[in-house]
Design the sequence.
């Protein structure tokens, strides 16, 4: 069972960590699994090349700002929107909305079998 996230009407499973950005690239130091690279449009250059990581750890979803220039706004249901600091991680739940700029809103979706 994997959580999923939706961006631009496309649902993507978290069977692998995901790096999201305008031109995402793999990390220099490889972990156990290379992340899925998800490219988003950024005509105003508000989105960093590798802006955000989303990964499933057990039964939780963790989002991490990848030292983005313009920041990441996370809106967990029932709480006030919060801007992550560079390199900050946050555990999120289904229904969370993540704004990375240039109209790119990511929604965390419930678990689903692949």
Sequence:
């Amino acid at each position: 069972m994997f959580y999923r996230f939706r961006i631009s009407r496309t649902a993507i499973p978290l069977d692998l960590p995901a790096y999201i950005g305008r031109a995402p690239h793999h990390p220099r130091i490889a972990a156990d699994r290379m992340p899925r690279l998800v490219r988003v449009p950024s005509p105003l250059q508000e989105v960093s090349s590798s802006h955000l990581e989303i990964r499933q750890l057990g039964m939780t979803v963790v989002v991490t700002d990848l030292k983005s220039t313009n920041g990441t706004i996370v809106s967990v249901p029932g709480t006030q929107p919060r801007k992550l600091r560079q390199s900050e991680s946050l555990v999120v739940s289904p229904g969370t909305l993540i704004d990375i700029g240039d109209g790119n809103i990511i929604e965390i979706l419930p678990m689903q079998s692949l």
